[in-house]
Structures are given as structure tokens and as C-alpha cells.
Specification:
Elements (H helix, E strand, L loop, with lengths): L1 H19 L65 H17 L42 H4 E4 L3 H10 L1 E6 L5 H12 L3 E8 L5 E7 L5 H8 L3
Antiparallel strand pairs: 1-2, 2-4, 3-4
Pfam families: Ribosomal_L23 (PF00276), Ribosomal_L23eN (PF03939)
Keywords: Acetylation, Citrullination, Cytoplasm, Isopeptide bond, Methylation, Nucleus, Phosphoprotein, Ribonucleoprotein, Ribosomal protein, RNA-binding, rRNA-binding, Ubl conjugation
InterPro entries: Nucleotide-bd_a/b_plait_sf, Ribosomal_uL23, Ribosomal_uL23-like, Ribosomal_uL23/eL15/eS24_sf, Ribosomal_uL23_CS, Ribosomal_uL23_N
């Protein structure tokens, strides 16, 4: 019968396989070389060289132990981009048609320039609006009134200035200017100042001669401060 012939043929193919591929050596897949006898006649050995197309279907009913099967073919799914809706395409085409029919009917006025130089226009520059302060606390003013006026001088020449010229003599900060010295004296001692002269001594200190206004007496102010 056909079944007995198929079994005989299957054993014959198995013996041929063992001759070409002895046990203990890795054997390739039976797909393409051998098929089950009940499915159909054995495929020629040249079928191994064929590249399976997308329409080829392999049926493997039975695989004898010892065969290493091929990995399954990966299915490839082609995804086509959906075509744009007809209404949207039609509206786009009509818009383009109107633009083409209208054309460009613009009249640009030429600006007359009477000078060969061009100055960049001064545009509006807005102040910064920071989202958060860059410093947690504002910096302390290191040169305040108490740092500007260090101490009054009580030398003989300073006393002579108090008596003769209505002038007080102070040692001040070397970085302080005359305006700062005048404001510091007014704030600390509550007196009006006519003018301020300054000099830097050889030892590096700054000396300030503060001439008081005619309404104030330097001798009374010196007593109040505690110089005399």
C-alpha cells in the first residue's frame, strides 16, 4: 500500500541522513529536505537552496528527534499611511486656487533717506522682572556713617583749628569722599557743615577738616562730643 511504501521511503531517507550527518554532529533543519510521507513525496535536496517567498507555506507534521528546526519566519506587516480626508484636501486646494487667482497686488512705498548714515533705532527696553531674587538678602552697606567717621583728632593743631577757624578735625575712612563726610557729620552730630577739606597722611590715613556753618560754634560742639 501507499502507507507501507511511505514508511519504507521515510526509513531510507533517515539512513541517508545519518550517512551524511553522523550522530553527534549538529544537523540542520529537516525543513526543505524531508517532508512527512503522508503529506507528499519527499522534496529534492535542492529545495534547501530555495529562498521561501511570502506565499510559501511549510507544513511540518512530524520531526524525528535530533533534528534542529529553523526559526519561524517573521511576518512582515506593511502599514500604509492613511490618505487625508477628501474634504480637507478639497478645502486646501480651493484656498490655493484663490491665492493664485488673487495674485500679489501690493504697493510698497519707498522710504526717502536724506542722510548717508544709518542709526540703529532705539527700541523699548523693559526692566527685568525676575521670578526669584538672585540673592537671599541684600548686601549690607559697609561704608555707613559709623564707618566713615572713625574718631576726632585732639592734637594741639586740631585744637587750634577749633578755636581759630571754627573747624573740627576727624580721621575718616580712606574711601570716603567729601559729600559722604559732610552727610555723616550732619547725621551723627546734628550740625550743618560749610565745607570739607581732606588730605591723606603719610601713614595712609585720611584726615578731614570740617568747617562748621556760622550758626554753630566749634568749641560748643567739641564740648558736646567730648573732645575737650
Amino acid at each position: 500500500g501507499s502507507a507501507s511504501w511511505a514508511e519504507f521511503r521515510w526509513r531510507e531517507l533517515g539512513r541517508q541522513r545519518d550517512r551524511h550527518h553522523p550522530p553527534g554532529r549538529a544537523r540542520h533543519s529537516a525543513l526543505g529536505s524531508y517532508t512527512h510521507p503522508l503529506v507528499g513525496p519527499p522534496c529534492p535536496r535542492a529545495c534547501k537552496e530555495l529562498v521561501p517567498s511570502a506565499l510559501t507555506i511549510f507544513l511540518l507534521v512530524h520531526v524525528q528527534p535530533g533534528y534542529i528546526t529553523r526559526p519561524p519566519l517573521r511576518s512582515v506587516v506593511l502599514r500604509w499611511a492613511p490618505a487625508p480626508p477628501k474634504a480637507e484636501a478639497k478645502a486646501k486646494a480651493l484656498k490655493a486656487k484663490k491665492a493664485v487667482l488673487k495674485g500679489v497686488h501690493s504697493h510698497k512705498k519707498k522710504k526717502i533717506r536724506t542722510s548717508p548714515t544709518f542709526r540703529r533705532p532705539k527700541t523699548l527696553r523693559l526692566r527685568r522682572q525676575p521670578k526669584y531674587p538672585r540673592k537671599s538678602a541684600p548686601r549690607r552697606n559697609k561704608l555707613d556713617h559709623y564707618a566713615i567717621i572713625k574718631f576726632p583728632l585732639t592734637t594741639e593743631s586740631a585744637m587750634k583749628k577749633i578755636e581759630d577757624n571754627n573747624t573740627l578735625v576727624f580721621i575718616v575712612d580712606v574711601k570716603a569722599n567729601k559729600h559722604q563726610i559732610k552727610q555723616a557729620v550732619k547725621k551723627l552730630y546734628d550740625i550743618d557743615v560749610a565745607k570739607v577739606n581732606t588730605l591723606i597722611r603719610p601713614d595712609g590715613e585720611k584726615k578731614a577738616y570740617v568747617r562748621l556753618a556760622p550758626d554753630y560754634d566749634a568749641l560748643d560742639v567739641a564740648n558736646k562730643i567730648g573732645i575737650i
